Amino acid sequence: MVSEEFGFFIDPQRCIGCRSCVAACAECGTHRGHSMIHLDELDRLASTQTGPTVCMHCEDPICAMSCPADAIKRTEDGVVHASQKPRCVACQNCELSCPFGVPIVLPGLEQMLKCDLCYDRSSIGLKPMCATVCPSQALLFAPRHEVAAMRGSRPLREFVIGGLRIRTRNAIMVPDPEVPLNLDASILMEGGL
Amino acid sequence: MAHLPTDAAALRSRFGPHLNSAPPGGWDADPVPERTVETHCCFCGQQCGIKLKVAGNQVVGFDPWEAFPFNKGKLCPKGVKRYLQGGHPDRLLHAMKRTASGFEPMGWEEAMERTVAEITRIQDRYGKDAFAMLSGVSLTNEKSYLAGKFARLALGTRNLDYNGRLCMVSAGAGNKKAFGVDRAANSWEDIPLADVIWVTGANVAECAPITTDYIWRARDRGAKLIVVDPRITPLARTADLALPLRPGTDSALTNGILHLLDQWNLVDRDFVRDHTNGFDEALEAARACTPQWTSAVTGLPVAAIEKAARMWGEASTSFLLHARGIEHQSKGVENVNSCINMVLATGRIGRPGCGYATITGQGNGQGGREHGHKCDQLPGNRDIENPEHRAHICGVWGCTDEELPGKGLSAQEIMNAIHEGDIKGLLCLCFNPLVSLPDSTFTREALEKLEFFVSLDFFLSETAQHADIIFPSALHEEDDGTSTSAEGRVIRIRKAVEPPGEARTDWEILVELARRLGRGRFFDHFTSPGAIFQELRRASSGGTADYGGITYEKIEKQMGVFWPCPTEDHPGTPRLFEGGKFFHPDGRARFIPTPWRPPMEEVDADYPVWLTSGRVVFHYLSGTQTRRIGFLVEQCPHPYVEIHPRLAANLGIREGDATAVATRRGELVLPAKLVTTIRPDTVFIPYHWPGNLGANRLTARHLDPVSRIPEFKVSACRVTRTTPDRFPPELLELMALGRGE
Lengths: 193, 741
Ligand code: SF4
Ligand code: SF4
Ligand code: SF4
Prior knowledge:
Chain A is α+β, with helices and mostly antiparallel strands. Chain A contains six helices and eight strands; from the N terminus they run βαββααββααβαββ. In chain A, the strands form three sheets. Chain A has a four-stranded mixed sheet. Chain A has a two-stranded antiparallel ribbon with strand order 2-3. In chain A, a hairpin with a 2-residue loop joins β7 (154-161) and β8 (164-174). In chain B, α5 (169-179) crosses α14, α8 (250-263) crosses α12 and α8 (250-263) packs parallel to α14. Chain B is α/β, with parallel strands linked by helices. The longest helix of chain B has 19 residues, at 108-126. Chain A: Pfam families: Fer4_11 (PF13247), Fer4_2 (PF12797). Chain A: Residues 6-36, 46-77, 78-108 form the 4Fe-4S ferredoxin-type domain.
């Protein structure tokens, strides 16, 4: 069981695009060689902003609801697991339905894989691999009640996507005030543009 | 003599870089680790703690070492994937000699005999100093110390220098001038306590990623962040104030700030009076640096300069961090001292939350500049020209003053002397000058002139390809020892596995060479790294970098010991200068006047654009190791030119276009990467690649007069659009790799 006391907080503001999370995810005991994290350069022309995407572990996971083979299970501790190999038919419904674009059906593997919060680690009191290594702690795994005191930003666990209200186990940190994404050195120079 | 023995493509196909992407036996092998070894990352100066998993004399993976206080398990991607170099197919397993058609394995005995015969021949014919040695600061403290002693007493040459010369020597020299000691003034624990953080010439997110979390922890408390850099780096993206100044104008800005601090009465006059000398002279040099003047020189708006001065001046605690951006210049030392002037003027040093540091770049960059493998230095950060310092070391080493050579040439000067024909032989250890020195065409010509070149390496680096004899040496995880992190924390490197094949540790190779050179009496007692460390402790005792009280046991117990640590009952010194006490004989710090002067090369009609270079997070320095690791290469397979869209539009360049960047030294053709996060008058190229992809084909050999560091960060270039058929073949190969072909 993963303690409810501990939450996973994703803070794109802090992300430096180093892909340590991607590198380390592939190294954990369950994912050997496959990373479950997507790391996107949002718009490299205009900014160095990068964004990590990990599974949000939804309270009512659409991936599981849309799975015809009932292969995706959510445990009591709010962790949504990767598909169960014997059941998964690799139909990609989960890939298409997840509002956060998380699950991956790897060619050749014929199974949906996704972040399971490093269940081998988090269920015995360790942090997920990505959150352990993340140099800037853009991926943070910490006691929920400590986070407010620790960070200037606000954890968001409820989203409205396509008219659907989604509550998640993991939180996204929202900065206040918002940080501009579009950066141009020439604006900051003498004479401007 | 030392031309490439065969063509570059043939060397590449045999010695790599090949990519290793999976642990030994592949991902499905999943070996059960027999043990984990608590050690440190082999790459950058932060020296993160890491646990290596070992099975069957191979490193098969890693575990985060969360108990280690500096990084608490955090790692950048290089640290995560470092274990993939262990069973790497490119590892050198036998001694090799150059033949007409390439390299051939040779017996250890023959390699030793030939090397000793050649060293002796060259020195008999041309004199001792005609044989030079270059070493690197990825070496442990033990090996750095041994390298210094080996060059002086086994080779008897004064021409020994190290690749820290290309890294932090400007910081070291500036620190010594101002503080009388060369070390970060604080442990990183003071960063989260600071109210304002000034980062200049440091791409912290990519070159010192773990440090970003320390800075964010301060910002969570409301600290302000000021970042000075021609590029808006990933850390600058969120800064309270980003100052994209013109390359080479750093001390103009810092002088301008000092001027304003004085004008606005934000100087801590009591601190200046009680604990420093030279304030008036430094201020005098900054007198003309009005905001208008500073704006004209740096290209920053007056309002931004004034805002920076207010933010810095009005804070109650602060931390200033700098790195190669300001140090890699022909006025690197002046840049460093002008930063320190800003720190001293506010008196914010030597107490909690107040500090100053250079972010050491190379793994043991800090320790490597303390133990005497610099051309002008003896262990304990002693001066090779100081008679008392010499006497102390002669006492420890058991040699006479006549046996101890004097000051020699620095790294670039050694290469210049090889080119001139004054130096005929070279031993190179853990240094890849062909990629890392400026003006690589010149470096290649120099290597080709050597009569004899012996290299110790674990992969065949671009420089080692020019060697006559190569000894296969050991990786970081194959040896014991200590290293000293950017913070000044001495830490323990633990051996995880034995070196493969006939590879041996650098210290074993050097000790055997010394013995065969007839100098065994100075080296025979070095039977382990621990034995070398015992002598290092004695040699450093009483010096500024005093390791006298540090033992392996104490390091393990305390998870590192900060020097100075003079006695065994001393806990070490995380924060220097407490109570305003500095290391100069009078206990006071020095303001150093830094009147502004332009860089050695400025833009003109022929070369109208500034060129600067730096690192990406996926590679380490000359890439000897990281260009061999699949994941790291896939994230950033090849160099590129960062250009602002406004400059690109003027030049008719679009994203991905073949772009020729030419300086007075040479030309590179690389794909363009259009980004608004760089000044429109400046282009940037990451420098980790060799040959036709090497940014150092373009840089100049101008040196800082004090630190002898080359001016890597400022050149004038011409940028033009060209056609893709001019992309070098090795670039096309790497581009295909990047597309997953
Ligand atoms: S984020 Fe996507 S994959 Fe994760 S639980 Fe929600 S729907 Fe499923
Ligand atoms: S490890 Fe952290 S900082 Fe690096 S890319 Fe992943 S989320 Fe971003
Ligand atoms: S390269 Fe530096 S930041 Fe990255 S893991 Fe190694 S020591 Fe840490």
